[in-house]
Amino acid sequence: MAQINPSILSADFARLADEARAVEGADWLHVDVMDNHFVPNLTLGVPIVESLARATDTPLDCHLMIEDPDRWAPQYVEAGAGSVTFHAEAAAAPVRLAREIRAKGARASMALKPATPIEPYEDLLPELDMLLIMTVEPGFGGQAFLDIMLPKIRRTRELIAKHGLELWLQVDGGVSASTIERCAEAGADVFVAGSAVYGADDPAEAVRSLRSMAERTTADAPWACAH
């Protein structure tokens, strides 16, 4: 089943609790944590995640675009995140970190920037609950979708099938009504959408519409039929 995770990076930060409630039909709420070191932007941290976790019943999907996630990621589980994503490019010991996140009770996820290939991480996939393929350069919302990531999504889906894994494949960056079907056809099943949701007149309806588009495409996708 396709999952839609609205990104609060595109929400009104002065009204985060209200913005979370506006998309309560979403599968997860995507929280972008940026430290102004790993990426050139600064957003929010553990206290905001703690507050959001109290303000919404929608589980939190925290994407850590930060240096030294080995040190900081476990704190986001303790703050209430149901899924924590660290970047392969930033983690010193990704297997150990994934196991620690899982041991604390959250789903462990790893993200790859556009220029980072999936193949070197094939043997690590069984340690993860989700893999995130960035379809823009991380750091800012509202960027245009990078079509050149579609083959990487397909290769990742093939590796998941090769190893018989129940691994979610998430895409983040430029996901909208005009791109979500291409992502779903290539093999993605979890979709982060920021502007496409919070820029809509009715964010909840935007979530339902995007999910419907992804599910229709997935039903006919070769990778899903073979699953």
From TrEMBL:
The active site is at residues 32, 172. It holds the Pfam family Ribul_P_3_epim. Its cofactor is Co(2+); Zn(2+); a divalent metal cation; Mn(2+). Binds 1 divalent metal cation per subunit. It is an enzyme of class 5 (isomerase). Substrate binds at residues 7, 63, 139-142, 172-174, 194-195. Its EC number is 5.1.3.1. Keywords: Carbohydrate metabolism, Isomerase, Metal-binding. It catalyses: D-ribulose 5-phosphate = D-xylulose 5-phosphate. A divalent metal cation binds at residues 30, 32, 63, 172. Pathway: Carbohydrate degradation. Belongs to the ribulose-phosphate 3-epimerase family. Catalyzes the reversible epimerization of D-ribulose 5-phosphate to D-xylulose 5-phosphate. HAMAP family: RPE. This is Ribulose-phosphate 3-epimerase. The gene is rpe.
